[in-house]
From TrEMBL:
HAMAP family: CobT. It is an enzyme of class 2 (transferase). NCBIfam families: cobT_DBIPRT (TIGR03160), PRK00105.1 (NF000996). This is Nicotinate-nucleotide--dimethylbenzimidazole phosphoribosyltransferase. It comes from the Bacteria. GO terms for biological process: cobalamin biosynthetic process. The active site is at E317 (proton acceptor). It comes from Sporotomaculum syntrophicum. It catalyses: 5,6-dimethylbenzimidazole + nicotinate beta-D-ribonucleotide = alpha-ribazole 5'-phosphate + nicotinate + H(+). Belongs to the CobT family. The lineage of its organism: Bacteria, Bacillati, Bacillota, Clostridia, Eubacteriales. Pfam families: DBI_PRT.
Length: 349
C-alpha cells in the first residue's frame, strides 16, 4: 500500500468505546481514578480497538536491525561487527530482549532491514535487506528517498503480517551499532535544543568521543540540509534503515488499530518521524519508559507522550517496551476481571 493511502487509513480513536470504558471504570470497586495510569491505558486501548474490554495477550517485540555508515567517523565505541553478532544472539534467545520478552509472555521477531553483513542468514530471521547499511551521513545522504520509503514499507508489511497472525500488542525494538547518532540528528532537526543537550554517550563514549559525535552530527546536518517539513527527507538524509523500519511498524499498527509500544531513544526517533508523517498515529502509541539517553525525553515531549517507567534503562532492543507489556495487559485485565459495585454487592451510600 502506498504510504499516503496508509496514512489516510489511520483514523481517530473510537470515542464511544472510550466513553463506555470510562463508565465501566467508574463503576468498578475502587475510588474513581484510583488506578491512575492503568485507567488511562484502559481508556486508550478501548479507543484503539473499539472494545471496552480489549485483549492484548498476543504480544510481540519486532527488532529491526540495520547498520550505519557514519560509524567510520568514530561515533561509537563498539565495532560494526557487533550488529550481526547481536542479531544471532537475539535469534538464539540469549539477549536482554529475549529474557524480558519471555517474562512478559511475548514473542520476539528479528528483521534484517539493512545489516552491513551480506552473509547474515538464519531460518528464523526475517530477511528484508534494503541495502548493506546506510552511507556515511557526514559526507552525504544516509540513503536515497526511495530506500527510506522501501524500509518503511518493510515495517508496514511486517506489522501487517504479524497482526494477520493474531498479534494484538506490538513493540518496537532495534539493533544497529552507532544508531544513537542518526537518532540525535533526527531529533535536532525538530528541536531547538542544543546538540550538547541532545547527544548522549551511546554505549560508552569518553569525553573526547562525545565531542566528536556532536561535531559529526553538526556536519551531517550542514551537509545534507534535511527539510523538517518533509519527514522522509529527514529520514533519508540523516536517519537509518532500522529507524525507517520502525517508522513503518508504527504506521502499520495504527492503520490496523493495534496498540504499539515505543522503547527507547532510537525507537522514539522512529516514532517522531511517524508522528510528523501522520500526527494521528500518536493516539496508537504507548511510551514505555524514559531512557538514560538525554534525547529520549525531548523526543517524547516533541510527540506529546508521557513515559510510564523510569528505570535508568539504556540498552534498547525493545527491553523497556517488553517490561511495559505486563502493565498494559494489567490495564485490560482490570477492565475484564475486576467486579463492579453491583456485582460485588458493595453499597457505597
Amino acid at each position: 500500500m502506498h504510504i499516503e493511502q496508509l496514512i489516510k487509513n489511520i483514523g481517530p480513536l473510537d470515542g464511544e468505546a472510550m466513553q463506555k470504558a470510562v463508565a465501566r471504570l467508574n463503576n468498578l470497586t475502587k475510588p474513581i481514578g484510583s488506578l491512575g495510569v492503568l485507567e488511562d491505558l484502559a481508556i486508550q486501548l478501548a479507543g484503539i480497538t473499539g472494545e471496552v474490554m480489549p485483549k492484548v495477550a498476543n504480544k510481540m517485540v519486532i527488532v529491526m536491525a540495520g547498520d550505519h555508515g557514519v560509524v567510520e567517523e568514530g561515533v561509537s565505541s563498539a565495532p560494526q561487527s557487533v550488529t550481526p553478532q547481536m542479531v544471532y544472539n537475539f535469534l538464539n534467545g540469549g539477549a536482554g530482549i529475549n529474557v524480558l520478552s519471555r517474562c512478559a509472555g511475548a514473542q520476539v521477531k528479528v528483521v534484517d532491514v539493512g545489516v552491513a553483513d551480506p552473509t547474515l542468514k538464519n531460518i528464523n530471521l526475517i530477511s528484508r535487506k534494503v541495502r548493506l547499511g546506510t552511507a556515511n551521513m557526514a559526507k552525504g545522504p544516509a540513503m536515497s528517498r526511495e530506500e527510506a520509503l522501501q524500509a518503511i514499507q518493510v515495517g508496514v508489511e511486517v506489522a501487517e503480517g504479524e497482526i494477520d497472525q493474531g498479534i494484538n500488542l506490538l513493540a518496537t525494538g532495534e539493533m544497529g551499532i552507532g544508531n544513537t547518532t542518526p537518532s540525535s540528528a533526527i531529533l535536532k532537526v525538530y528541536s531547538a535544543a542544543t546538540l550538547s543537550t541532545i547527544v548522549g554517550r551511546g554505549v560508552g563514549l569518553n569525553d573526547e568521543g562525545l565531542l566528536n559525535k556532536i561535531k559529526v552530527i553538526e556536519t551531517a546536518i550542514m551537509v545534507n540540509k534535511p527539510d523538517p517539513a518533509d519527514p522522509i527527507d529527514v529520514l533519508s538524509k540523516v536517519g537509518g534503515l532500522e529507524i525507517a523500519g520502525m517508522t513503518g511498524l508504527f504506521l502499520g499498527a495504527a492503520a490496523r488499530k493495534v496498540p504499539i509500544v515505543i522503547d527507547g531513544f532510537i525507537s522514539g526517533a522512529a516514532a517522531l518521524i511517524a508522528y510528523k508523517l501522520a500526527p494521528q498515529v500518536k493516539d496508537y502509541m504507548i511510551a514505555s519508559h524514559l531512557s538514560e539517553e538525554p534525547g529520549h525525553k525531548l523526543v517524547l515531549e516533541a510527540i506529546g507522550l508521557e513515559p510510564m517507567l523510569r528505570m535508568r534503562l539504556r540498552l534498547g532492543e525493545g527491553t523497556g517496551a517488553a517490561l511495559a507489556f505486563n502493565i498494559i495487559e494489567a490495564a485490560t485485565r482490570i477492565m475484564s476481571e475486576m467486579a463492579t459495585f453491583e456485582e460485588a454487592g458493595v453499597i457505597m451510600n
